[in-house]
Write a structure and sequence with these properties.
Distance between the termini: 55 Å
Number of strands: 10
Largest sheet: 5 strands, antiparallel
CATH architecture of the largest domain: Orthogonal Bundle
Number of domains: 4
CATH class of the largest domain: Mainly Alpha
CATH superfamily of the largest domain: Intergrase catalytic core
Length: about 450
């Protein structure tokens, strides 16, 4: 977008000392087609400049006077200068002496397309506030597990915050392996024992659900929309934010299609009780759980939930524990873990395994069943023991690797281009190419361990 921008220096002379016909000291008008290109007017003399932000700093180059370069020629010259600056930056970011601070910018630029804007902001905050102060000057290639362990132990954050920052550093080191800055499988964060938080999820059993249902019934007339929201969370296992943002036009039969959730677009599958609940709600706006397009008041919801959990004698119960309980109930009922992952919107099966835990009733039933079988077997002298029939699990589908030609993977390792620029040059999808690069690294690690 073309817009004039006053340079910081030199400053304009005071109005009292400048004539009305005297030109401004320094004005830059940016080009509409190539925003990095600017026409600079300094005391009436016009020249073309190109400006780019490299490693957090503004870099400016002068291309020539306006009388010697046409706008089109200036654009071509500016493009060449920008390409050279990017190549210089890429060479610096992949040299053996590359520091963690320099490589952090390369990592963020290469991988930004994989994350949501809020995730990118969180990564930048973690790098600037907690990684660079202690590790920024260390070479990426020389970073050791001892360095990481000392840094991690000194982090002034909660256990959950420490783990998130460690995951950011680990991601940077994996990317360094992809670019050849570190040997495959040499991630200094690998095997780090993350500090555990003191949090323990609470899972509702049948008696707890019954008490919760009675508490909700008693408050339905006083706060019908808040009670309906809590029931919906319990019946679907969705996140609170997904429910409060739910719109009527996203509901299509037995599912609610969310255009954007924690891990991207997903569906909330609605059983008959959830559908009946939605059918009983008034439509006063676009939001399902709202009034005249105003979402439910989170403070009122927190107050109501605090009152409920004290009444049912579960003072530490969180709304998110309804999601844990939903997953546990589904697994205890015999649903395959992959099915439960689909209901919860998990892209990684390991996340679902972390959410679920078998209820005590299920373990008691299993112990009784196994004990009865063994007792029957022991008391049948001379008879063929009965066989325990193990439920067959569905075969795990073979892992598929993105169809990226191997020669392009080799070319990328030799290239100085960032992933977005490399994909643009060869007409590749950045997300698909990134998956192929990670799959290739996994293959190299596997071969190295043989």
């Amino acid at each position: 977008m073309a817009r004039p921008q006053i340079a910081a220096a030199p400053k304009h002379p005071p109005a009292s000392r400048r004539r009305e016909d005297e030109p401004l000291a320094d004005v830059v008008t940016w080009d509409g087609e190539l925003p990095a290109l600017g026409l600079r007017n300094r005391f009436g003399k016009e020249s073309w400049i190109v400006q780019a932000r490299i490693d957090g700093r503004n870099t400016r180059r002068t291309l020539g006077t306006a009388s010697s370069l046409t706008r089109e020629a200036a654009r071509q010259a500016a493009t060449a200068v920008l390409d050279a600056l990017r190549a210089e930056r890429a060479e610096t970011a992949t040299s053996p002496d590359t520091t963690v601070a320099t490589f952090a910018e390369r990592w963020l630029a290469d991988c930004a397309g994989q994350w949501k804007p809020s995730t990118l902001v969180g990564h930048r905050y973690g790098i600037k506030g907690h990684i660079l102060p202690q590790l920024g000057e260390k070479p990426v290639a020389a970073l050791t597990a001892e360095d990481v362990a000392d840094w991690f132990a000194a982090l002034p954050r909660s256990p959950g915050g420490r783990n998130r920052v460690l995951a950011v550093l680990s991601g940077m080191m994996r990317h360094a392996e992809l670019l050849g800055l570190r040997a495959p499988g040499s991630n200094p964060c690998a095997g780090m024992r993350r500090k555990k938080s003191g949090f323990t999820a609470t899972v509702l059993c049948a008696r707890d659900y019954a008490r919760l249902g009675r508490a909700l019934d008693a408050r339905e007339k006083r706060a019908p929309m808040l009670v309906a929201l809590i029931r919906f969370l319990a019946l679907t296992g969705c996140r609170r934010g997904e429910a409060t943002a739910l719109r009527w036009d996203w509901i299509d039969g037995p599912r609610a299609a969310l255009p954007d959730a924690k891990a991207g677009p997903r569906s909330i599958w609605l059983g008959t009780p959830a559908l009946d609940l939605l059918a009983s709600l008034p439509r006063t706006g676009d939001l399902v759980f709202g009034q005249d397009d105003r979402p439910v008041n989170t403070a009122s919801l927190a107050t109501l939930w605090r009152e409920i959990r004290i009444e049912i004698r579960m003072p530490t119960l969180r709304l998110h524990d309804l999601r844990h309980s939903f997953a546990t109930t589904a697994v205890s009922a015999g649903e395959p873990l992959r099915t439960v992952a689909g209901l919860l919107g998990h892209s990684d099966l390991a996340i679902t395994e972390g959410y679920t835990q078998l209820a005590d009733d299920t373990l008691r039933r299993a112990a009784a069943s196994v004990g009865k079988h063994l007792n029957d077997t022991l008391t049948r002298k001379g008879r063929q023991p009965a066989k325990l029939v193990k439920a067959s699990r569905p075969a795990k589908p073979p892992a598929s690797s993105p169809a990226i030609p191997p020669h392009l993977l080799r070319e990328y390792k030799r290239s100085r281009l960032l992933i977005p620029a490399f994909c643009e040059k060869y007409g590749l999808d950045p997300k698909l190419f990134w998956k192929a690069v990670k799959a290739d690294l996994a293959r190299i690690r596997k071969e190295a361990c043989k």
